[in-house]
Amino acid sequence: MLKFGGSPPECAGRRASGGCADCPARPFSICASVSDEDLGRLDAMAETIALPAGRILFQEGDPARHVFNVVSGSVRIYKLLADGRRQVTGFLFAGDFIGLGAGDSYGVSAEAIEASSLCRFRMGDYRALMAERRELESALLERAGRELAAAQDRMTVLGRKRALERLASFLVALPASDPLRPGLPGQVRLPMNRTEIADYLGLTVETVSRSFTQLKQRGLIRLLAVDLVQVEQPGRLRALAEGRALAPLP
Amino acid sequence: MLKFGGSPPECAGRRASGGCADCPARPFSICASVSDEDLGRLDAMAETIALPAGRILFQEGDPARHVFNVVSGSVRIYKLLADGRRQVTGFLFAGDFIGLGAGDSYGVSAEAIEASSLCRFRMGDYRALMAERRELESALLERAGRELAAAQDRMTVLGRKRALERLASFLVALPASDPLRPGLPGQVRLPMNRTEIADYLGLTVETVSRSFTQLKQRGLIRLLAVDLVQVEQPGRLRALAEGRALAPLP
DNA sequence: CGTTCTCTTGACCAGCATCAAAATTTGTGG
DNA sequence: CCACAAATTTTGATGCTGGTCAAGAGAACG
């Protein structure tokens, strides 16, 4: 499952480049709320870390010592049951914040999907900064609100939609979450593999694969590569995602 | 489904009793963060409304003109698919805040389960108050974090647990969410009916009913009434909820 | 006390999981 | 660049969990 065990050393430290001022993810992150002149404050605390694909960032139950911002790449967060069943609760991309729900310990595990870089803050610094810069707290609250709304959509997908509708929902929603790499219009990049999609949608790999095949047969999508989808009929795909369609093949 | 259509007039207006100072839900709500001397500020904006069972508070897509605090009773929030499939995304009790994820319009519908009273703030007042009393914003952010963590648990329930485990999870988690009415230890009060539980757990009424029967047959619970559960074996119930058990009947 | 709603139980069925294997892609070393 | 090995994806056959349809048992209400 892990592409690279747990071995390669973590490449962490101060940024070589200009820091927060020219962070590509800033416009999409909570840091966008910090004015240019206050950016030094952030820079002083931020620490950039680079993760290879498959690297575990932290695990459910670990003491929550840091919060993170995704700068580039993609991260998945998930929960495990005792017997290994896994629920991926989110895919995170550039600009996303990690650590919102955490109290003393993390409530989920986090792992890099592909080579990624993140910005890390010590929990104490983070709290102090929040107490000082209230625009940050507002930005975080707004983000939390959006995530809560998204979580309710996810519950509806997991609780009430059929396999085909789940995959359609996923393909419709995914592009909006990866602001740095929108790709060509109508194309959806899939950095995660089928197993991860399955664990995100509450299905098995086989069912996800069969659902991809069905979407192709219905002419709604085309697979340009195993990790690149061309959406052929956005309207019909969206209808499927919203539960407004489910007729047999013509 | 609706116990009382939409007819009886909404009983809204200033509180007859003392206001925020002696609000029974305050210790459990974000208002707990407001100091006693600042309470007048809250009082000036708050409007108490009483809802009969089944009354719809707002519907998904309605312009978000208010936020609410539940004072007593219970409320469900839910989303509907085009063909009527319903996902109940939360049951709310005294102290719970409604309106966190809302932007311009509500992302879910909200409806009273039983006769309930709520505290209502105009969206503008709410924003103004938040800008002024930052401890409120912090309290809200903390609450949002807890809700986000709960949402991830819900996703795991909906995506990866079997019917019996879902019901066990529900019975284990429910008491903690209703602070004003903890009931006797080991007892769980169920203000909502089987259909609502089903729509909360992503199941059908029949499956929920069969799962109750199974929990009884296994000796994990006893039904004192249709809406009152006696937990007989908390440990085994919790094990089931966490996916650490699923053996056939002895 | 009958009417109506809710809950429970039973019989049957379908969607998705499971088990198994083939096809395709990715990675590695010559 | 090619050949081989390993991993991922797809496809197929079969079975089980939970959904659907139907009817009976309890509660709630007038």
Protein model, in words:
Two copies of one chain form a homodimer. With 250 residues, chain A is α+β, with helices and mostly antiparallel strands. Chain A is built from seven helices and twelve strands. The first copy, chain A, has helices at residues 39-45, 123-132, 134-160, 163-177, 194-201, 205-217, 234-241; strands at 11-13, 47-51, 56-58, 66-72, 74-80, 86-93, 97-98, 109-112, 116-122, 187-189, 221-225, 228-231. In chain A, the strands form three sheets. Chain A has a five-stranded antiparallel sheet with strand order 1-2-9-4-7. In chain A, strands 3-8-5-6 form a four-stranded antiparallel sheet. Chain A has a three-stranded antiparallel sheet with strand order 10-12-11. In chain A, strand 5 (74-80) and strand 6 form a beta hairpin. In chain A, helix 2 crosses helix 3, helix 4 packs across helix 6 (205-217) and helix 5 crosses helix 6 (205-217). The termini of chain A are far apart. Residues 1-16 of chain A have low confidence and may be disordered. Chains A and B meet through strand 6 and helix 3 of A and strand 6 and helix 3 of B. The structure holds a DNA duplex (30 and 30 nucleotides).
